[in-house]
Specification:
Layout lengths: L1 H49 L16 E3 L18 E12 H10 L13 E5 L3 E9 L5 E8 L2 E7 L5 E3 L7 E2 L11 E11 L3 E10 L11 E4 L5 E5 L12 E7 L10 E7 L5 E3 L2 E12 L13 E17 L5 E6 L3 E11 L6 E5 L2 E4 L29 E5 L9 E6 L5 E5 L9 E4 L14 H8 L2
Length: 464
């Protein structure tokens, strides 16, 4: 009797195991089926929006071109865009008349077609709590299109675009002619230049750079070349003849920029003045980054293609030391520079537009949104009318070291916990698949919430 009871008990327990196992199996099967349906619906909607996908189409559009910057000192910002520390505030803009003697001096210092590279070295400026004004007043003949930017304390600020509000005269009684790609002619006797005045709010490092599009216009958000004052692609000359419009008690520095062709540094020339002008400082160490930006959808909906649910930059990071020697006139010039030294890999989460928790896996590193962010919050995507901070420390929702990331294999994935707490795994797409993740360069901005990626983005990329 006892033996029968024991056997009966095991039989009941066994049936319980079978029943539980079956329920678990059915639950997993339902989840898998639901995930598959979501992905199929997404693919169908993607094709409706952007057209049929070539089976050979791949989704890695990043060039990973090395970019020089000052060594990182920034830290994570909090919240949607974060508690940011604005480094410069644009106070005003206007115009300034640049006289012929200033133009002649510039022509003498930056001889067109000559190699003027020995006149300067990589540099940055150090702002104080001060006002300074930037005046782009000359551009040489060049078919390229460019934008002048500055980076102040890790925050990128656009200053000027080629041809913008720049006019010149070739005779006293002549009319002002608008700037074209033909540049300021050698016979110009006057230039009317735009001025941009900024207020530095704290002691910050500042450097300039050009974004250059070789096709002559800004066809995409991704420039073909970026040249920087940190890379000896800009020369700073002090002791310039000052335009009459510069206050007598202000110091003036003229900076010539190279668009990466003939090294004459007269492709764009601008002056910076202030009281005092932020001092020119030689660079002794730079940080070089190779960045790939992964932009992802979390399948919260299957017809939303803003690719801002998860935006993360993954970088290879190097440092490079630069050495100087003094010159006969009391200046300095570059003596040598060491080979770049690897400082490892890191990831920077820029935006998190989904309302679900997620876990990123980048190489060997995993990171979960709810570790230090609100899992249900939409962060840095313009939700609710909030602003988006695209670059600099203000968009660093999280920053952490990674290992094992292979930019060729794109071994990046994300597991999203949906409203039913099911885990949806999203990997970098194979060729021909409807992408839930794309890779772009680090200067491509993500979209505002529920603003789908424009059709021309993918149409342009499809042709590459």
């Amino acid at each position: 009797m006892n033996k029968s009871l024991v056997i009966g008990c095991f039989a009941v327990i066994g049936m319980g195991f079978i029943s539980c196992s079956k329920d678990l199996y059915d639950s997993n099967a339902v989840n898998e089926k639901q995930n598959e349906k979501q992905k199929n619906d997404y693919a169908t909607n993607f094709v409706k929006r952007y057209g049929e996908i070539d089976p050979n189409q791949t989704w890695d559009f990043a060039t990973m071109a090395p970019i020089s910057g000052l060594p990182s000192t920034s830290t994570r910002a909090a919240g949607d865009g974060g508690a940011t520390s604005v480094s410069v505030i644009k106070q005003s803009s206007g115009t300034m008349r640049i006289e012929k003697d200033v133009i002649d001096w510039m022509h003498e210092e930056f001889k067109a077609g000559a190699n003027n590279s020995k006149k300067g070295s990589p540099f940055y400026l150090k702002t104080q709590e001060q006002t300074f004004t930037i005046v782009p007043f000359y551009q040489g003949i060049a078919s390229y299109y460019w934008e002048l930017w500055m980076n102040v304390g890790g925050v990128d600020v656009q200053v000027w675009s080629k041809n913008q509000d720049l006019t010149y005269k070739t005779s006293e009684n002549g009319t002002s002619e608008a700037m074209t790609n033909d540049g300021v002619p050698a016979k110009a006797i006057e230039v009317n230049a735009p001025t941009y005045t900024f207020k530095a709010t704290s002691n910050q490092s500042l450097y300039f750079y050009l974004k250059i599009w070789k096709k002559g216009s800004k066809t995409t958000g991704n420039p073909d070349v970026t040249t920087s004052s940190l890379d000896k692609m800009m020369l700073a000359l002090e002791g310039a003849i000052r335009p009459a419009g510069v206050p007598i008690d202000n110091e003036v520095t003229i900076i010539g920029c190279e668009d990466a062709t003939d090294k004459d540094y007269e492709d764009l020339v601008f002056l910076i003045y202030g009281k005092p002008t932020p001092p020119i400082t030689p660079v002794d160490e730079i940080e070089i980054t190779e960045t790939k930006r992964y932009m992802m959808e979390d399948l919260g909906t299957t017809d939303d293609f803003d690719f801002n649910d998860i935006v993360v930059d993954v970088q290879n990071v190097y440092s490079q030391k630069i050495y100087w020697k003094s010159t006969a006139n009391g200046g300095w010039e570059e003596s040598k520079r060491d080979n770049p030294v690897s400082k490892g890999q890191r990831a920077i989460v820029r935006a998190a537009g989904g309302i679900y928790d997620f876990t990123l896996k980048i190489g060997d590193k995993t990171w979960t949104k709810s570790q230090n962010l609100s899992a249900g919050s939409m962060l840095n995507t313009g939700s609710g009318g909030s602003s988006i901070h695209f670059s600099g420390p203000s968009s660093e929702l999280a920053k952490f070291d990674v290992t094992g990331w292979d930019p060729k294999d794109n071994n990046v994935s994300v597991t999203v916990a949906d409203k039913d707490n099911n885990g949806i795994l999203i990997k970098f797409p194979e060729a021909g698949e409807a992408p839930m993740m794309i890779a772009v360069d680090g200067d491509i901005d993500w979209m505002h919430e529920r603003s789908g990626v424009p059709n021309n983005w993918f149409k342009d990329w499809f042709k590459k």
